[in-house]
Design brief:
Helix content: 40-55%
Oligomer: single chain
Number of helices: 6
Largest sheet: 7 strands, parallel
Strand content: 15-25%
CATH class: Alpha Beta
Order of helices and strands: EHEEHEHEHEHHE
Shape: globular
Amino acid sequence: MKRVILTGGSDGLGREFAKLCVAEGVEVVLLSRRKPDYPCVHIRTDLTDEKAIVGAADIIKEKYAEFDALVNCAGLFSGQKANAITYAELEATMRVNAIAPIFLTSQLLDLIKENKADVLNVISTAGLVGKPDHITYGASKYAQRGFGDNLRVELAKTACRVINVYPGGMNTNFFKKYNGSDKASDFMNPAEVAKQMWSALKTPKQVEISEIIINRKSG
């Protein structure tokens, strides 16, 4: 691989994956609001905004048209109770977790096909099974899962692969950014999950690892 397009790389899992790419000599083109602390091409992008996504896609088409993978890693948590969902949080969660990856991939789909590039979607185990107080978050992740499964059908006759990754809880600021919780301190190391993402993308092209489920080991 020579170049990867990445969302959600300012911290957490995306940051660990980006650092791994940089260490391996792969250029990272990052779409995010915040500039990270590692060397990359940073395109300032608000993933909740249609025009911002279109603008970022236009820059990629003009300057970074050759790439090997699109990694949709940006995510937003929501833990509202079923009878207390606010429209604002519902909309924001859907925009980041579902609408942004679908729309960005659509904007770049012709290049993805031309480059024979892969699409890796970082979803969540919440996209596989229901959990308490996860209605909004889970719904957004089920939507992302459906997007990946349908995109795989669309790209079935191409050399492009679609990889859905379902990680469990990781030791990041994911929950802390939402409500200040530090409950993730004993969760998985995101660097280990990033290695699995990297490995899937580095697998020879005639092999498609369609799904990776990474759970926290208890006991």
